[in-house]
Amino acid sequence: MSLRYKAVIPAAGLGTRFLPATKAMPKEMLPVVDKPAIQYVVEEAVAAGIRDVLIIVGRNKNNIANHFDSVPELETALTTKGDTAKLGKVAHSSQLADIHITRQGEPRGLGHAVSRAASYVGDSSFVVMLGDDLIDERDPLLPTMLAVHERTGGAVVALMEVDPEQVHLYGVATVGARGDDGSVRILDLVEKPAREVAPSNLAVIGRYVLGPEVFGVLAHTEPGKGGEIQLTDALRELAADPDGPGVYGVVFGGRRYDTGDRVDYIKAILQLACDRDDLGPELRPWIKQFAAGLDSVTDSPAQPAVETASDR
């Protein structure tokens, strides 16, 4: 079923929260244990049966294309050394999928980035995957979202319950009753609301299944929150259309790692490394010992930053 879908991965954000590391290195290429974050996202698409991937990049992001290309000199050197394990890892990234690259031009928001995929997608439905959100391979999400889209014909977004103190960082949904398959009809959406006016704590996380009709809506969507063209605003219009197929949500309760925030990025590395057979046995005892020595440390409350999608 999913072989007919294409995946679109917007990766044109400036990544200002990770400066100076992201001055010359795309944040999507920052390593999460021993793979760049964006490789996890492509692997998730491939696991769902999607082999055709468009990555939307900005300036100074040639490293992304290079990562998914073959490197004959490196592969030859590893072959000569007989290092088949590393050779397999290097070859794996270049053989994952058919990777295409296009530029956003200027960072004008997620909605604008998605609109750049119109000629690539054509008249077909497609998947949008944000590189900030890594979904654990043990808790597959895309197959459920694709099934809901097949059943309803509507756009489908991934939702997750978040701490009410964090709703200002997300698009937040107003939803109807939950169906037998766990999906919900989305009645309304608002981008990054203040806690006191948020309609729920169901936040939109970085996975979408969209029909080609979204491009027509994005074409006339005015800049919204942060002065950017918001995908949330386009989905809100689709949800309000009484004659359209509607917008649905799949509430995700599995393991998700947010690599768009510095603290959560570090947490993601620790969580994934601890679960690995080659790293966990050595790392877990050290973390317990290290944590035991933190009892005397006084924590300072974190101050949330105001940001736009282009920053990420």
TrEMBL record:
Enzyme Commission designation: 2.7.7.9
Domain spans labelled Nucleotidyl transferase: 6-271
Catalytic activity: alpha-D-glucose 1-phosphate + UTP + H(+) = UDP-alpha-D-glucose + diphosphate
GO molecular function: UTP:glucose-1-phosphate uridylyltransferase activity
Presence of the UniProt keyword Protease in the record: no
Pfam families per the UniProt record, alphabetical: NTP_transferase
UniProt keywords, alphabetically: Nucleotidyltransferase, Transferase
GO biological process: UDP-alpha-D-glucose metabolic process
InterPro entries per record: GalU_uridylyltTrfase_bac/arc, NTP_transferase_dom, Nucleotide-diphossugar_trans
SUPFAM superfamilies in the record: Nucleotide-diphospho-sugar transferases
UniProt-listed CDD domains: UGPase_prokaryotic
Family: Belongs to the UDPGP type 2 family.
Protein name: UTP--glucose-1-phosphate uridylyltransferase
Originating organism: Microbacterium laevaniformans
Organism phylogeny: Bacteria, Bacillati, Actinomycetota, Actinomycetes, Micrococcales
Gene transcribed to yield this protein: gtaB_1
